[in-house]
């Protein structure tokens, strides 16, 4: 029970309360299901004695006021992502990618066709069957993979750079269970990263802006691909357990990746929260926009409550499903099973 009926609520997670405290007329609480969080207002408190027509209740504020309040979390995520990138630019510099000819071979599996026919880790493939590979980018990797898959038990000629020498290697791909060819290597674009640091404040903002918009485009493009190719991408959707595992791995590798990971995480949260789904900020915004389109007439209360309740239930069950799936995919869990 809130002592002051005009208190707001700041929650981490959903479900039953595990712990809570009050500060500056705000009740903070930790919930049982660690799936994000939310902010509650006196409007949502069934025990509140504030009159339902009080003009200071959020639901009675003008439409623009409500849009600003509901959008605050999304705006905070976007600003925080920008500040993270700005901090990276000033502190460690911005990674710049420089592309080189060919495709790099970081790993050759033992007893594979590539190992048997003389390909070594660290080699750079310059040509495949006489066709020169593009400089950098994923296209060169895709070109090699396509040729290998289409050539089971048929000789494939690779022009390889090793140290300061260029020479040709003939490799005969093994046949996969599905009839395609494989040679047992890991491939990656032949790129190298260097660091650039700004020489002035204006240059720092310029670097930050370019990186921020680049990351934002990647997030939006990933969301588009998920929607358009859901059957192929659904298995790649991750929950909080996988995100923590990836973050821990990035933190162990290098500080640059940690900056990028934190910025991407905030941008993803901003985009997902804007989706017009019940229980998300975007869902609340959708209700407000519907109200505006109806000339200020709200949807019936029971309709709104029904949609929001079903949305919260869906989010909880989806979150629990992702937690279980991601936990079972952890390496030490796989070793136990």
Oligomer: single chain
Number of helices: 10
Q: Any idea how many domains?
A: 3
Structural class: alpha+beta
Strand tally, please?
A: 10
- The separation of the N and C termini measures 45 Å
Helix content: 40-55%
Question: What composes the largest sheet?
Answer: 6 strands, antiparallel
The geometry reads as elongated
From the alpha carbons, calculate the radius of gyration and give it in angstroms: 27 Å
Order of helices and strands: EEHEHEEHEEEEEHHHHHHH
Protein architecture, described:
The longest helix is centred in the first third of the chain and has 29 residues, at 63-91. The chain is elongated, with a radius of gyration of 27 Å. The protein contains 10 helices and 10 strands. β1 (8-23) and β2 form a beta hairpin. By secondary structure, the protein is α+β, with helices and mostly antiparallel strands. Residues 1-6 have low confidence and may be disordered. The strands form 3 sheets. Strands 3, 4, 5, 6, 7 and 10 form a 6-stranded antiparallel beta sheet that branches. The protein has a two-stranded antiparallel ribbon with strand order 1-2. Strands 8-9 form a two-stranded antiparallel ribbon. The chain has helices at residues 63-91, 113-116, 139-149, 201-228, 230-233, 240-253, 255-273, 281-293, 301-328, 331-336, and strands spanning 8-23, 26-40, 94-108, 124-128, 131-132, 156-162, 165-171, 174-175, 181-182, 185-196. 16% of the residues are buried. The protein folds into 3 domains: 1-60, no CATH class; 97-196, PDZ domain (Pdz3 Domain), CATH 2.30.42; 201-335, no CATH class. α1 packs across α4 and α4 packs across α7 (255-273). Belongs to the peptidase M50A family. It is found in: Membrane. Residues 92-133 form the PDZ domain. It holds the Pfam family Peptidase_M50. It is a multi-pass membrane protein.
């Amino acid at each position: 029970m809130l002592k002051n009926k005009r208190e707001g609520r700041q929650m981490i997670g959903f479900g039953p309360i595990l712990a809570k405290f009050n500060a500056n007329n705000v009740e903070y609480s930790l919930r049982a299901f660690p799936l994000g969080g939310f902010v509650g207002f006196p409007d949502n408190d069934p025990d509140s004695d504030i009159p339902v027509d009080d003009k200071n209740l959020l639901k009675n504020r003008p439409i623009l006021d409500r849009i600003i309040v509901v959008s605050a979390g999304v705006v905070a995520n976007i600003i925080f992502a920008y500040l993270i990138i700005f901090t990276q630019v000033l502190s460690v510099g911005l990674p710049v990618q420089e592309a080189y000819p060919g495709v790099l071979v970081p790993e050759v599996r033992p007893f594979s066709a590539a190992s048997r026919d003389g390909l070594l880790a660290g080699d750079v493939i310059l040509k495949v069957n006489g066709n020169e590979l593009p400089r950098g980018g994923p296209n060169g990797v895709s070109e090699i993979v396509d040729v290998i898959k289409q050539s089971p038990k048929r000789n494939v000629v690779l022009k390889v750079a090793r140290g300061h020498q260029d020479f040709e290697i003939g490799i005969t791909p093994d046949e996969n269970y599905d009839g395609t060819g494989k040679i047992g290597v890991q491939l990656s674009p032949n790129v190298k990263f260097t660091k650039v640091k700004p020489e002035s404040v204006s240059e720092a903002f310029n670097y930050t802006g370019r990186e921020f918009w680049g990351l934002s485009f990647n997030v939006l493009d990933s969301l588009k691909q998920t929607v358009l190719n859901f059957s192929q991408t659904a298995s790649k959707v991750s929950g909080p357990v996988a995100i923590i595992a990836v973050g821990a791995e990035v933190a162990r590798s290098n500080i640059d990746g940690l900056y990028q990971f934190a910025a991407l995480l905030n941008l993803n949260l901003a985009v997902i929260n804007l989706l017009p789904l019940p229980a998300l900020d975007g869902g609340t915004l959708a209700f407000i926009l519907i109200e505006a389109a109806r000339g200020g007439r709200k949807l019936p209360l029971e309709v709104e409550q029904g949609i929001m309740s079903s949305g919260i239930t869906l989010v909880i069950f989806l979150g629990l499903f992702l937690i279980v799936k991601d936990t079972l995919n952890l390496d030490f869990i796989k070793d136990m099973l």
